[in-house]
Amino acid sequence: MSIDDAVARYLDHLTVERGVAANTLASYGRDLERYRRYLADRRIDGLDEVSEADVREFLVALRRGDPDAGHDPLADSSVARTLVATRGFHKFAAAEGIVVDDVAHGVRPPAPARRLPKALPVADVVRILETAGAGDHPRALRDRALLELLYSCGARISEATGLDVDDIDTELRAVRLHGKGGKERLVPIGGPAVEALDAYLVRGRPSLISRATPAMFLNARGGRLTRQGAWQVLAGAAERAGLEQSVSPHTLRHSFATHLLDGGADVRVVQELLGHASVTTTQVYTLVTVNTMREVYATAHPRAR
């Protein structure tokens, strides 16, 4: 059976017997047409001529792209989706007796590229914090306290907005964070954060509270500040600070970890501070510091080049 006939039979199977949605069917059709053209370019006419190596090389070709033919490289997520269609096709062909072996069975999708966290320079973080606390208005005091806390201890945004007043001890300079899976951790906070929290507790929070609530950070109506509200606080401060890039609460968490490692902190200590269950999760930040060291080395060492 020709590859064209086998593909048509598989798509009919998806339509009639599997009841696949029209959009999914169209996506499978495009992916398999790309696969059919690839095999045709290699002068492979029959499905029984395809080997596992051909399937693997097809994935490599998708990731590499073909500028001469006007084909841009596909993202890993798109390659993985195409592999799903290709594996399904070969599995069907083997089950229907069109071919003897399912040559795509052992082919796995490419591992996604490891994205480096985006950390702000210290100077940019300082500009954000100073901009957030401009004035003595209760909400300005709250905003400064919130952002100082996020950067000082690397809290997740949900951990910060979930704080109660009793979770913060400014005398011990520590905060109790309630992390994922109900796990708690006690994290130190720095002097500027303590000062901002004290100012908010004394002069800001009493003016915002309208009913009895243990919540630390309050909105304008006196209720607990939401995650979306905290996002807006940071976005506004970053915009007023003149930062052009998008800044999220997680950006401050990334910056907290990266700046600690740049300063010589042990990765396992940073792991505990961030509340990561595994040090492997934290080690992605070491890639950032290695890149920084490489840049310094390249510019400073007389025989770096």
Automatic annotation (TrEMBL):
| Keywords associated with the record | Cell cycle, Cell division, Chromosome partition, Cytoplasm, DNA integration, DNA recombination, DNA-binding
For this chain, one GO molecular function annotation is:
DNA binding
- Residue stretches making up the Core-binding (CB) domain: 1-94
Which residues does the Swiss-Prot or TrEMBL record annotate as the active site?
Answer: R156, K180, H250, R253, H276, Y285 (o-(3'-phospho-dna)-tyrosine intermediate)
Per the UniProt entry, what are the Gene Ontology biological process annotations, in alphabetical order? cell division; chromosome segregation; DNA transposition
**UniProt xrefs under InterPro entries:** CB, DNA_brk_join_enz, Integrase-like_cat_sf, Integrase_catalytic, Integrase_recombinase_N, Integrase_SAM-like_N, Recomb_XerD, Tyrosine_recombinase_XerC/XerD
Q: Which residues form the Tyr recombinase domain?
A: 115-298
Q: Where in the cell is it found?
A: Cytoplasm
Provide GO CC annotations from the record: cytoplasm
Concerning SUPFAM superfamilies, the annotation shows: DNA breaking-rejoining enzymes (SSF56349)
Describe the function of this protein: Site-specific tyrosine recombinase, which acts by catalyzing the cutting and rejoining of the recombining DNA molecules. The XerC-XerD complex is essential to convert dimers of the bacterial chromosome into monomers to permit their segregation at cell division. It also contributes to the segregational stability of plasmids.
Q: How does it assemble?
A: Forms a cyclic heterotetrameric complex composed of two molecules of XerC and two molecules of XerD.
Q: Which family does it belong to?
A: Belongs to the 'phage' integrase family. XerD subfamily.
Q: What is the protein named? A: Tyrosine recombinase XerD
Biological source species: Gordonia desulfuricans
